[in-house]
């Protein structure tokens, strides 16, 4: 059992308490919407203490305590909290958390510092509970406490704000850095958006609208929010994203950029500093590999797709680029790779590798089998690579302990023997959930061998465009008559 503290964003808090909330108000909150894995510590019971940070001087408020919350796959839900809004700035130096580090946020970054839920000690809980119990005595007393908790009073290194609204520069940069450092953390985006909205920056509203659109909404609400997002995009889009190339958005930020090397190389330096974009698609020529190697922005790329004819030599130069060493996904579909293909000792952090439509044949596949990174790959695409049954047998003998999706489609020489090969190596594919064999020469006998094999997690066997006409197994996907 654990007790946790989590932050409620400005937008969510004001949707519950209004634009001008006051200490002493009981909000009756009964849930906290978050998928943060740290909160799983509550699964065995405990309390979830919800706090928020209020402008202009970063007043810290306790707004609810959820007793024994239960997770419904989207939110932690409990009985409505009976706790009144309580100013707890005086506890900033007293709370230590299980980490022992306490609250050490610099001025303007308190919200950011609390965005990851933290485990509380018994002493922390006692302090918070005492503060909550005392809050109900008089709203006036809570107001006095709120006025007394300017950052300068509790941390002498932090001077109090000189105006009604704290300067945005340093805080904004720190919060944006947190978004870029952890693109999957939507809480970081909410905190950043709150900071922008606090200073009337329309980008904050845009991010919050996009985040809302990613959740469950009524049809009318979704239409209205989409209209508002479009309005903001049309009005400010060129100002926010003055970049060449094709951009793809996600949750208020640029997620991916695509274009020829010249366009991407021109846009990427500033784009990757201002947006959590780590997905890049480039139409590239052989003689541009050297330019990519010199591009400092390449070190920020995590998912790279290349288009164009590279060949084995240029590919060998590409994978050896030091700045690309931390790639997690590489897609080189139809780039002219062949029997000289090799990854050597490089790109060992890949979890997704797409080699579709490259004539690797036995020699190229043999080189793949020797690659150390094969042990960590989760998605492996080898469609239309000129493979035969023996090639697949060699690949599976090398073991694929983390592969969840294996695609061998459009390798026409793979026939019924492949079914026995896959069945015989089932233990070497313990994580396999999706097997794609579209357009191979497999028939019903081969599929039966796969169906009866001891695959621990196999949920889909895709054999469309083969001689398989039907299969009495919900996992098998075949062409309907």
Describe, in plain words, how this protein is organized in 3D:
- The structure is a single chain.
- By secondary structure, the chain is α/β, with parallel strands linked by helices.
- Helices cover 34% and strands 16% of the residues.
- Helix 16 links the parallel strand 17 and strand 18.
- The strands form three sheets. It has an eleven-stranded mixed β-sheet with strand order 9-10-11-12-13-14-15-16-17-18-19, with helices on one face.
- The radius of gyration is 27 Å and the shape is globular.
- The chain folds into three domains: 151 residues, ph1033 like fold (Roll), CATH 3.10.590; 71 residues, no CATH class; 232 residues, Leucine-rich repeat, LRR (right-handed beta-alpha superhelix), CATH 3.80.10.10.
- The chain has 16 helices and 19 strands.
What is the count of DSSP helices, taking H or I runs of 4+ residues?
16
Instruction: Give the class from helix and strand content and strand pairing.
Output: alpha/beta
Distance between the termini: 55 Å
**What is the typical, i.e. mean, pLDDT?**
86
- The CATH architecture of the largest domain: Alpha-Beta Horseshoe
Which of globular, elongated, flat, extended, rod-shaped describes the shape? globular
β-strand number = 19
Low-confidence stretches: 137-168
Widest sheet, order of strands: 9-10-11-12-13-14-15-16-17-18-19
- Mind telling me the CATH superfamily name of the largest domain? Ribonuclease Inhibitor
As a percent range, the share of helical residues equals 25-40%
Largest sheet: 11 strands, mixed
- Proportion of beta-strand residues: 15-25%
